[in-house]
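Our preliminary data section would be incomplete without showing what the modeling component actually yields. Below, a chain of 824 amino acids is followed by its predicted structure, encoded as tokens that our downstream tools consume directly.
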Amino acid sequence: MSQHLSISAWFFVLIRKIVFVWVKLNIIGGNREQLGITGKHPVFYILPHKSLSDRLALEQACLDSGLPSLQQAISSKSKLRSSYTYVYKRKKPMFSRRATLVLSRRLRMLVQLAVDKPEFDAQIVPASLFWGRAPDKEKSLLKLLLSDTWAIAGRLQKLLIILIHGRDTLVQFGAPLSLRRLVDDCDGNAERATHKLARILRVHFRRQRQAVLGPDLSHRRTLVNGVVMSQAVRQVIAEVAATENIPVEEARQRAYDYADEMVSNVSIATIRFLNRLLHWLWHRIYNGVTVNNVEVMRDVARDNAVVYVPCHRSHIDYLLLSYALYRNGIMPPHIAAGINLNMPIVGAILRRGGAFFMRRSFKDNRLYAAVFNEYLHTIFRRGFSVEYFVEGGRSRTGRTLQPKSGMLAMTVRSFIRDHQKPIAFMPVYFGYEKVLEARSYLGELRGAKKEKESILGIIKSLRNLRQSFGRVSLTFGEPLLLADFLDQVHPDWRNESKDPNARPEWVEAAVNELSREVVTRINSAAAINPINLVATVLLATERQAMDERMLIEHMESLCGLLRKNPYSELTQFPEGTGKEWVDYAAQMRLVYRQRQKLGDIVLLDGTNAILLTYYRNNVLHLFAIPSLIACLFENSHELKRERVEYLCGSIYPYIRSELFLRWHGDDSDEMIRQWIKTLVAEGLIVEQGDRLLRPQSRSAEFFRLRVLAKFIIPTLERYYITSAVLQRHGNGALDAKELEELSTLMAERMAILFGLNAPEFFDKSLFRNFIDTLRKHNIIREDEAGKIHFDDQLEDVSEDARLVLSAQLRQSIMQVTAGSGGRD
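Predicted structure:
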């Protein structure tokens, strides 16, 4: 018998070596420390189905990862002479054309061993294998043969799959289970323990397969029919036909046209093609792509329908996210794309890559809204992952934009209607060192009209392939489980109406809170890069120039401050030294050096000065609180600690609303105190009893404090402009829209007079948000005619501004607002 086993083992090794001349593995989770594997208990691997090829691949993966072999005996006294088994075995009864699945004998033997020997334990490691990754979508026999799917492949089919997709094979190890604990939980009952183990493994393998392949897909035509023929859409079709006095068939055809326009048409061949194309592209234009916190992403994707909610910096965003997910063994999501991207050729490729197209606005088109809502609900109900941008469009200034609640509201209503499949929002942060569209953004901020997407525009953009765009960081943030969120804001949500057209009153407020929480979590995953640091420091100087040694010291100081008091656990820091960061920025042609005998000077030219505001704005929120503290010492040599804490606490809600900072209430007060402590420890503020003093003039700490203060001062200047405009015109003179318009004009004028190279300084949306925050905090109120009224609290803003803004600037703002047509 032993001779037979040795021959069998030798034959197994020979086949493995032959097969892996061709097959190439991508291994995920094959790490002893990650798996928690120790030598205390033997390891036993579990596969979902009996398969020699899967066993060969798993053995190779174990050898490559330094894990115990499948071939070693689990126990000298057991009939199990190797350390693997499978959950199910195919059994084909006599005279039956269809095979059934039965629990494997080896699985039962393993459990029985633990029952018979109370001292025995084993670490059970489930392993999933994917020979190429393709959803079960096409009816074509050829595509079924050449793709790994949800179905169990036969021997011939598996051979063809290995030949075609062997070089794209994925092996994923799951977290180990304790066999002893499972048997003890079942009170030593072998039958119960076997079935419980099989059930746990079955759920694990199904979730793992769904995360990698995506849920089973229907034919696109079937999906379109299902959406249009749903009860919710049929009801609206009848109402539209009656309202517009048209035949029902005409309204139904319109619904079919809408569905056909929007529904995606996922093709695994296209996804594979895009994966290879994008792999080449990233290596062509980027110095590297870093993906952070991906382990959390894998855990979330296994148990939930995931809604990816990235910040929107570039058209590259959705390509980069799908690429990163696919390369890490996760099925790319269905992506909500603007109808403007549904161009000839490009639109078809995007649709096959997972894009579904939507019109920019459809609140006045009931039928379109019904079809879109039903399609989105179908996606969620089937467990697909989805991606959409809560900001609505790309940020032209580098700031995270105020969120749009439309898609979030549809998601929430769909979940209330059917919440069998849990939904998790996954914030995603993109950190670019150089944005592909930066020059066009610059033109738009200077007043140029936004160019419409076209084939010609794409061809023109190919010229960018000759440039380097630095590195890219992609960070998965802290996931937000929708059920948990709804439990907090409306505990009775599970008892709401399941009517697809229901609009519960509480949902609007909940969605607004949800949208702010999502973008706040995006910002919490920020990654700092050398370009962010260079931009932040140089733009804080009057002439956008600094001695190179001082620049290096300031950048390293900023990084040091954030390392001592990190914004969040997910914050990423750049590698290297300040000198290397400056050299890198010069190599990227974003700054230039002017040689000088006393030391080189690093400068920005006019165009790059404006361009770098984009990269500074990406990370401005990270420095908001220390900068707010620092700016209080601009015009004051000393302040009482209590006064500093009070002023920061009173200004913080407005900064938080604009920059989506993560602390509120007592947490924000504690963070302000923590930052005061950090600045004191660094010598940027001097503590004497209950007083805080700025450092001695001309000291290095004094200049560091002044540079830090400059980060947030433009934001406070905008606030002062709005307050000055409002006070100048008086109570009941302006409505919110007029105040927003006048504040924007005043800011634009100030930017010209003071040479501020920051287009977002007079961004209308920032003034709109500030006015809205004033309203929420009851600083201003509106009468029945919509006119704004205020009280003495607004006067306090002007008084506190003396601590921050220079007398010249305050006087200039008052002079400009005096000429705006207000009363004397």
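The radius of gyration is 31 Å. The chain is about 50% helix and 10% strand. Preliminary results of this kind motivate Aim 1 of the renewal.
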